[in-house]
Amino acid sequence: MKKEYLEKVQTIDDLITAFYACLGGEPGEKRDWEFMQFLFHPQGMKIGYEFDINKNFRPQWIHPNDYIERIGYWFNNTRETAFYEREVGRVVETYANIGHAFSHCQAFHSKEDMANNKPYKQDVKSIQLAYYQDRWWIVNMFWHGVTDEYPVPDRYKKFQQFP
Q: What domain of life does the native source organism fall in (predicted)?
């Protein structure tokens, strides 16, 4: 385990900020996939509401290692535009060693689009967290795209924490 990795998982804020930062980059720019794996508990999952091959909108589970294998390959070799995500707001609640965050984020095809506030999509992520072994872990990350049918609730447009 790298010391700089451990420093980035001591608080929920640090962990979520690190997650968004580790995915960003220009086309072909290598991401630190080892670090992304470090953020997730080994049994954690990424779950996205997406269309399946039959055009049904449903949750789709992917282990972070499989995400890295599939999406990482695409980021590193095929994607023709940059990818950056920026968190807009977050509501965090904690109880003992359990944490939960609703995180509203925007995705961009370039740093210029991000500077001009021109996202190509937005998501709301439900992030379940656990504290043990002297650090926070992402246990599951579940997201849903923002649409006209499912707009972002106002409470997710700012940063709030409830112990």
A: Bacteria
